[in-house]
Specification:
alpha/beta; Rossmann fold; 3 domains; seven-stranded mixed sheet; five-stranded mixed sheet; 12 strands; glutamate dehydrogenase (NADP+) activity
Length: 449
């Protein structure tokens, strides 16, 4: 089913030709372009001076070799990436991902999505993303430190608090950010706290940053439900993943009175009809760095572990895919709809395949795309940059209040934009157009550069 305006099809054709073999980037570009036909009909000026073509082309793509030495003394080689996608609104901002699946297409799709996500926050940050095909799983702290230091030896020449500000993502948490920041400081001889976000509290980090993406997704979900006179209280929820995003989404759902009955990792998922015990999940993932299968051993009776399979087979009213891209298929969507799903909000980046999104929309299920629903992480990163610039440190409560305010504003901007463009309740169209217009207006004001 082609929903693309005929004026925009040649642009997508060029994106696909110029970026061959990068299906995730093609998917992200199509998803945005499908929303823009309404914009160029109402505002034809946005199709002038190749503005949309320029937005689809990264400003800079960097690929580099990362040699490092493992604990046995063997030299290993990985590949590093940084895509600086768009700086119309501010310095490039986006996380670094360490995972075997990482390639230039994945990083490009993430950077493209990040551009619009960052625009939606209303904060002065552009879009970028980076990473490596390095797999931290099973590696010692010393191996991870040596890899991070080698990674930063090349990356440092391309970043800075007024140029490009990376953060964490899958496989990159506070430990990895600390190793990279330490090497950046040594290489540059500058204590430039604003060059990386997601830092530890002892050296310029922000309270609530670890919790922000998960909390933000839940704030957005609660706001969606409130438009229907409802809320998370008493709702049966499923959250995929068990990293930072999932853990803190579970925590905030529970504070809103919802019950999370399942979560997962890449090996399988656990179901606990009494409600997931968050303390056990935190012990497994944050302390032991273990696998979700251990939950059954620690919790005892009343729960079960399913190796492989799909977590979306578990009946629920609220689904938050918080693991990775394209994890929720059309078949999963059909199962969720059949089981009575009410709302789906993307805690990860593009976790729902396009066919799944269309099924949700056709069934009138409230659906929040990641560029809106999971913007809380980057929003709080921008707040960390603000604190670093003023040499200040806010309380957890102040930071979370700002996060809640930003997520509510993002929700309202998406909803209002969808109404304005004759698509009431369509958060995909609302998010894409609201983000695009902000970036496009900045680019038009700066001329053809």
């Amino acid at each position: 089913m082609n929903l693309l305006d005929s004026k925009l099809q040649p642009i997508l054709n060029t994106v696909q030709l110029r970026n061959a073999g990068e299906p995730e980037f093609h998917q992200a570009a199509r998803e945005v372009l499908e929303s823009l036909g309404r914009v160029i009909t109402k505002h034809p000026e946005y199709s002038e001076e190749a503005l949309i073509e320029r937005i689809c082309e990264p400003e800079r793509q960097i690929i580099f070799r990362v040699p490092w030495i493992d604990d046995s003394g063997q030299v290993r080689i990985n590949r590093g990436f940084r895509v600086q996608f768009n700086s119309a609104l501010g310095p490039y901002k986006g996380g670094i991902r360490f995972h075997p699946s990482v390639n230039i297409g994945i990083i490009k799709f993430l950077g493209f999505e990040q551009t619009f996500k960052n625009a939606l926050t209303g904060l002065p940050i552009g879009g970028g993303k980076g990473g490596s095909d390095f797999n931290p799983r099973g590696r010692s702290d010393r191996e991870i430190m040596r890899f991070c230091q080698s990674f930063m030896i090349e990356l440092h020449r391309h970043i800075g608090e007024y140029i490009d500000v990376p953060a964490g993502d899958i496989g990159v948490g506070g430990r990895e950010v600390g190793y990279m920041f330490g090497m950046y400081k040594r290489l540059t001889n500058r204590y430039e706290a604003g060059v990386l976000t997601g830092k530890g509290l002892s050296f310029g980090g922000s309270r609530a940053r670890k919790e922000a993406t998960g909390f933000g997704t839940v704030y957005f979900t609660q706001r969606m439900l409130e438009t229907k006179g409802s809320g998370l209280d008493g709702k049966r929820c499923v959250v995929s993943g068990s990293g930072n995003v999932a853990i803190y989404a579970i925590e905030k759902i529970q504070k809103f009175g919802g019950k999370v009955v399942a979560c997962s990792d890449s090996d399988g998922y656990v179901v606990d009809d009494a409600g997931i015990d968050l303390n056990i999940i935190k012990e497994i993932k944050e302390i032991r760095r273990g696998r979700i299968a251990e939950y059954v051993e620690l919790k005892g009776e009343g729960c079960r572990y399913i190796k492989g399979g799909s977590i979306w087979d578990v009946p629920c009213e609220v689904a938050l895919p918080c693991a990775t891209q394209n994890e929720l298929s059309a078949d999963d969507a059909k199962t969720l709809i059949k089981n009575g799903i009410i709302v789906v909000a993307e805690g990860a980046n593009m976790p729902c395949k396009p066919e799944a999104v269309r099924l949700f929309q056709e069934a009138n299920i409230m659906f929040a795309p990641g560029k809106a629903a999971n913007a809380g992480g980057v929003a709080t990163s921008a707040l960390e940059m603000q604190q670093n610039a003023s040499r200040d440190s806010w309380t957890f409560e102040k930071t979370e209040d700002r996060l809640a305010e930003i997520m509510h504003n993002i929700h309202d901007a998406c909803a209002q934009t969808a109404e304005e463009y004759d698509a009431p309740g369509d958060y995909v169209i609302g998010a894409n157009i609201a983000g695009f217009v902000r970036v496009a207006e900045a680019m038009r004001a700066m001329g053809v550069i």
